[in-house]
Design goal:
It is a single chain. By secondary structure, this protein is of the alpha/beta class. It is 42% helix and 27% strand. The strands form 2 sheets. Strands 1-2-3-4-5 form a 5-stranded antiparallel beta sheet, with helices on one face. Helix 3 (99-114) packs across helix 7 (174-193). The termini are far apart.
């Protein structure tokens, strides 16, 4: 098994040679402009794979090396995430002035980081949404702005716009808002698989 692990490490050096690779006995560190990847080797053949995007974990895998093929499959999955541009999905919470959404955004980003969820939430005032939406996929509208939902949808046709339930917004219920984000992502995945 030790020989297979050494062959796997040799394979990694070849695959990562263009990614600013730093190699030590037990760690392979590689990076690009936004992401840092780490592959750590422990006693008894345990391997840990991590990708950080702006200090947020977006990929984590811990496994025991059982075969070259199994490790290569895990590494290939890691590299699909590492090579993906803008791996974090961005969400805007929009309210009238950006103040109440800023507080919810702060709580939400803490929740997302704690749960290792690959999303970033940003706050926006109603008149800022159009300028911010270019790299955002979802705009969530605070209950007090529900009257402007149609105007927001028309101003940002490239993004999906939907309201936040009043009880979720008023109680800063991060778990429920996260569920709303996941429902949107799942729906998007279902749409793309049917094409």
């Amino acid at each position: 098994m030790r020989d297979c692990l050494e062959i796997f490490k040799y394979y990694l050096r070849g695959q990562l040679k263009n990614d600013h690779l730093i190699v030590t006995d037990h760690e392979y560190l590689f990076y690009d402009q936004d992401k840092v990847g780490k592959i750590l080797f422990y006693d008894h053949g345990f391997v840990e794979e991590i990708i950080l995007y702006h200090d947020q974990v977006i990929f984590y895998l811990y496994y025991q090396f059982s075969s070259y093929a199994y490790a290569k499959k895990n590494f290939d999955g890691m590299m699909r995430v590492f090579r993906k541009e803008n791996p974090l999905k961005k969400v805007i919470i929009c309210c009238s002035g950006g103040l109440t959404s800023a507080y919810f955004t702060q709580k939400m980003n803490t929740f997302l980081k704690y749960n290792h969820a690959p999303y970033i939430v940003e706050a926006a005032a109603y008149d800022e949404v159009k300028d911010m939406v270019n790299d955002h996929e979802l705009v969530l509208v605070a209950p007090q702005m529900r009257y402007a939902l149609t105007q927001i949808q028309e101003s940002v046709p490239q993004a999906h716009v939907e309201p936040i339930a009043p009880q979720v917004f008023a109680s800063y219920d991060c778990a429920q808002l996260f569920k709303q984000i996941l429902d949107f992502v799942k729906g998007e995945d279902d749409d793309s698989s049917s094409i």
